[in-house]
Design a protein that fits this description.
Chain A: Belongs to the binding-protein-dependent transport system permease family. Chain A: Keywords: Cell membrane, Membrane, Transmembrane, Transmembrane helix, Transport. Chain A: It comes from Pseudonocardia halophobica. The complex is a heterodimer. Chain A is an all-alpha fold. Chain A contains twelve helices and no strands. Chain A has two domains: 58 residues, no CATH class; 170 residues, MetI-like (MetI-like fold), CATH 1.10.3720. In chain A, 78% of the residues lie in helices and 0% in strands. In chain A, helix 7 packs across helix 10. The N and C termini of chain A lie close together (9 Å). Chain B is α/β, with parallel strands linked by helices. In chain B, the strands form two sheets. Chain B has an eight-stranded mixed sheet with strand order 7-8-9-3-10-11-13-12, with helices on both faces. In chain B, strands 1, 2, 4, 5 and 6 form a five-stranded antiparallel sheet that branches. The longest helix of chain B has 18 residues. Helix content of chain B is 31%, strand content 23%. In chain B, helix 5 packs across helix 7. The N terminus of chain B is likely disordered. Classes of the chains: A mainly alpha, B alpha/beta. Chains A and B meet through helix 9 and helix 10 of A and helix 3 and helix 4 of B.
Chain lengths: 314, 340
């Protein structure tokens, strides 16, 4: 397992390097000259040139890349062109909030998906199964901004159970954190829950027909052991694939949900940076997002290794 | 166990089945796939159940063990007694207490009958934990012992490996270790050697024979291979289209078959002493479920079929000698060829 882990980690290094090229190059492809934007519409050609020189945008690309990558490695992602705050600080403030939101959304979606999938797979064709499959279709089809507004209307404005907007860091007050994160996380997680439930239901039904499930029953194992151990470990493989894809989607979805609920996460920072063409911030955020995505893929692969012994190298 | 006790238990009936009827849900509604099967098995005896695919031999045994899917199956029987358990009255939960320590099963496909995601040792050990309350350590130790008993080399190392690291024959040994774990009174072996090479097949049969000698359990051996039957069984039931058509002791059945279907099966068996002889086959196909012929169910394929065989109710099982029954109307007139 250790060998598997190390080889898997080693293979991420070249990928990561490639990603830095793309991240750096991508920004150059975006139309519009940041120097022009910063200098303002009234600026003369000389003023624009001065700004460009100050920012180092006139130097060869390779030099710019080398500068960027070496400082990025030491944790310096540059300074925002507009707020003059270090990019690392902006990301450092927003990232934990976004990760907390995405993580809670993932947990909530699994808490919904796993029991739903088990019940509907075991009660296939009954009204319970039909209700949950209608629920899944709705969960996938309904846009999150609409769902979010409905949740706010119901749980905050009508029932008054949960706050509508805002965020409290967990280290300050865990209870307040939970009450603030619940609605956004539910909004963000519900589409994933529906997708996971549907996927897991299908794979449970497939696994239930396997001979080894009959063997497990023939051993006289209790129903919950047959399902919880013998069926679930095999049926989880496709679910893990789906979860790996969902983690990246959750980061994207977080941008929208953070806006609706006024959560001060990375989404806010990203949105501002994109509208103002704040290149260092965009680069920093994309790099961090890619890192998170790669880490989650690594986690997915390691989970495969746990679930399916054939994947592990011998 | 003393000698007198041993003699007494040898004649004990471990499993008694009377008038077992199994219906399964098909696309066109409920269909009867096992129709009035009755038999009993004594301690220490190996009972063979022979028949073509679809004759109901596996369904019979899966139904007894409560392993048919409940929503698509209806099981009825006048008697279904396993030692002192009345299986017709047990709840699914009570039934799961019986499977393992009292009745256990070995299945046909050693490739797919073991869970690919757990080590072989764990799959044996969990039976001991479930039924005997063994601790993790104790069950692990005994799993290694069981692997050793069924002839898996370097059992301690093999116990930590996964099924895909085993060959077909070795996997079937693991299945036998699982079935043997709680020392059951009845083992049902459902075509355990069909998927294996001939040499491996012989080894597995030898292992089953040895284990039975050692533990004195009853074995129900389901197969379509008469060669295997001749090798291992004491007594044989022949099934056709969901019914028993003949039952007898092994030698009597082979020397003096009393049902044309059994004669046909024997004629289709390759013979070592005369390999040049062309193999006969029974013409036609077994009837489809839900489309059983009137009269004798075998008559469309029977070369001895007479007018009386083609209509009316299915002929009853008749006793033709001590412990020998047949479902053939014409058994008294016919002289059938055996394969001694």
């Amino acid at each position: 397992m250790l060998k598997f882990f190390l080889t898997r980690v080693a293979t991420t290094v070249p990928v990561l390097l490639l990603v830095t090229f793309v991240v750096f190059g991508l920004v150059l492809l975006i139309p519009g000259d940041p120097a022009v934007t910063i200098a303002g519409p009234e600026a003369t050609v000389e003023q624009v040139a001065a700004v460009r020189e100050r920012l180092g945008l006139d130097r060869p690309m390779v030099v710019q890349y080398w500068d960027w990558i070496t400082s990025a490695l030491s944790g310096d992602l540059g300074t925002s062109l507009f707020t003059s705050r270090p990019v690392a600080t902006s990301i450092g403030d927003g990232l934990p909030v976004t990760l907390a939101l995405a993580g809670s959304a993932l947990v909530i979606s699994l808490l919904i998906a796993v029991p739903t999938a088990i019940v509907s797979a075991l009660r296939r064709g009954t009204w319970l199964d039909r209700i949950s499959s209608i629920g899944s279709s709705l969960g996938i089809a309904l846009p999150s901004f609409w769902l979010g507004l409905m949740f706010v209307l119901l749980f905050s404005l009508t029932l008054g159970w949960l706050p509508a907007t805002g965020y409290v860091p967990i280290e300050k007050d865990p209870a307040a954190w939970a009450s603030h994160i619940l609605l956004p996380a539910l909004t963000l997680g519900i589409a994933g829950a529906a997708e996971s439930a549907r996927q897991l239901r299908g794979s449970i039904i497939g696994v239930l027909q396997q001979d080894y499930v009959r063997t497990a029953r023939a051993k006289g194992l209790r129903g919950r052991v047959v399902i919880g151990k013998h069926v679930m470990k095999n049926a989880s493989v496709p679910l893990v694939t789906v979860l790996g894809l969902q983690i990246t989607a959750l980061l994207g979805g977080a941008v929208l949900v953070e806006q609706i609920f006024g959560v001060p996460g990375l989404g806010q920072v990203a949105l501002n940076a994109v509208t103002t063409r704040d290149i260092p911030v965009i680069q920093g955020i994309v790099l961090v997002a890619v890192l998170v995505a790669m880490l989650s893929n690594l986690l997915v692969d390691l989970t495969y290794g746990y679930l399916n012994p054939k994947v592990r190298p011998r | 166990m003393t000698a007198t006790q041993n003699a007494a238990t040898l004649t004990d009936t471990t499993l008694e089945v009377d008038n077992l009827v199994v219906d399964v849900l098909t696309e066109s509604g409920w269909a009867t796939v096992v129709d009035g099967v009755s038999f009993s098995v004594r301690r220490g005896e190996t009972l063979g159940i022979v028949g073509e695919s679809g004759s109901g031999k596996s369904v019979t045994c899966l139904s007894i063990a409560g392993l048919m899917p409940p929503k698509q199956t209806r099981v009825r029987a006048d008697t279904l007694r396993l030692l002192d358990h009345d299986l017709t009255r047990l709840s699914p939960k009570e039934m799961s207490d019986v499977r393992g320590p009292t009745i256990s099963m070995i299945f046909q496909e050693p490739m797919s009958s073991l869970n690919p995601a757990f080590t072989v040792g764990d799959q044996i050990a969990e039976v001991l934990r479930r039924h005997e309350g063994a601790s993790r350590r104790e069950s692990k130790r005994r799993a290694v012992e069981l692997l050793d008993r069924v002839g898996v080399p370097s059992p301690a190392r093999r116990a930590t490996q996964y099924p895909f690291e085993f060959s077909g024959g070795m996997r079937q040994r693991v299945m036998i270790a699982i079935a043997l774990a709680c020392n059951p009174d009845v083992i049902v072996a459902d075509e355990p050697t069909t998927a294996l090479d001939v040499t491996v097949q012989a080894q597995i049969l030898e292992l089953l024979r040895e284990i039975q000698r050692e533990h004195g359990m009853s074995v129900i051996f389901i197969t379509h291979d008469l060669g295997v039957v001749a090798d291992i069984c004491d007594r044989v039931l022949v099934m056709y289209a969901g019914q028993i058509v003949e039952s007898a002791g092994l030698d009597e059945l082979f020397e003096d078959p009393r049902h044309p279907y059994m004669e046909g099966l024997l004629a289709a068996m390759p013979r070592m002493d005369n390999p040049s002889e062309a193999l006969a086959s029974i013409p036609g196909h077994p009837p489809r479920v839900g489309a059983m012929p009137e009269g004798c169910r075998f008559h469309p394929r029977c070369r001895y079929a007479a007018e009386a065989c083609t209509g009316g109710p299915t002929p009853p099982l008749e006793l033709v000698a001590a412990h020998h029954t047949t479902r053939c109307l014409r058994h008294a007139e016919l002289t059938l060829k055996g394969n001694p």
